[in-house]
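Quick check before the chapter quiz. The format below is the same one you will see on the exam, so make sure you can read both the input and the output lines.
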Amino acid sequence: MINPVWLRSFCTLVEVGHFTRTAHNLHMTQSGVSQHVRKLEEYLGQPLLIREGKRFTLSSTGDRLYREGQKFILSLSDLEKQIGLDPAFEGIVKVASPGSVGLQLYPHLLDLQKQHPKLVIDYRFAPNSDIERLIAEHKVDVGIMTCLSTLGEVSLKPIAQEELLLVTPPDMLEPSWDQLLELGFIDHPDGAYHAGQLLSVNFPQFQNSNQFKRSGFSNQIHLILQPVSMGLGFTVLPSHAIRAFKEHGDVSVHPLTKSVSETLYMGTHINRFISNSVNTVISEVTTCLKSI
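Here is the expected output.
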């Protein structure tokens, strides 16, 4: 039987990617971590790491062991939570959301952490596809998504609505289709999807976002409106992202005739034990998003 202590050291090493930081996280010495990996390799009779100086990559055996071993470590962790103390305001809670929601939500959760310093918020900004994968792989406790999941491991519950809005430079009052074509599109990771959702029901000429010249791109949610404010193009964004833009007066926001809103879903793993601390965060997230 594989020693679970060795396995925990190995899985942590794979996640952290560095022997010294792994030793620090596990309150061990670096040689102790190395010894655990060597013992696992001796027990299995196969190398787990392909070492390249201070760096390493996983062998095929190492990759399989990590994927299966991680599930075992998580199950042990869940067991400890279920049979042990389960405080509502202590522990690390991992959350992921699209950037637009995160701009509003993350500061709110930091205020919660300030009230309860033992409750640590680990927040990631990610697109929907990454969020559902993180939930399915037990890498986050809570994920906020704006579309339904394709994975059976992910359980979703609708909690709020987020309006999509057309944003143009400040001198454009009532944008026409021809003006949008001339101006060009400031793209972002969800740009084609958001444009399709909103523009398709308001402009009969719309087929897809490729009809517009691409005037710019940013994958940083807080920077997408910067080129718009400079007159370089237009974009379509959720309302949370627009409200978070500091130079709000430097752009024009257009509620169109036919409004479109995205449903915000609360996502968790269908088979994961939900601790009291995670429930605390879920409650805060729900309250925050419904009040915005």
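If your answer matched, good. The longest helix spans residues 60-83.
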